Amino acid sequence: MFGRGKTPELNVLVLRDADVVAHGIRQALATATPEERPGLEAAVAVAERAAAASDAELRARWVRERLAEAGHEGPVDSVGAVKTLREAAPGLSLLAAVQLTKDAAAHRP
Q1: Domain boundaries along the sequence of the chain
Q2: Is the pTM of this model over 0.85?
Q3: What are the phi and psi torsion angles at 53 (to 5°)?
Q4: 50 C-beta neighbours (distance < 10 Å), count
Q5: What SS3 state is found at 33?
Q6: For a designed S-S bond to 47, which of 22, 87, 88, 93 qualifies (C-beta 3.0 to 4.6 A apart)?
């Protein structure tokens, strides 16, 4: 009623660049010296793991990082966490903050 018949959508943009980083490291690996290869091979593995993370995992990590930076120590999906997240990310709607904290609680690190 009163325009609330449709559930509002959560609009959070997840930016990914790990695949670009992994590609750049692979290119460097192609011309690497034998001494450089082990480090670059390890770096490629790390970048590929990061690129494989789901959007939900990235959002959960973002929420946990914002909460940690703000000093929040309680449950990630608590009312206090929602309040802290909204203070840490001005402009984040209540709906978005609630959904993000619920999603972060569902994706344990």
Answers
A1: 13-52, 54-109
A2: no
A3: -65, 140
A4: 16
A5: coil
A6: 22
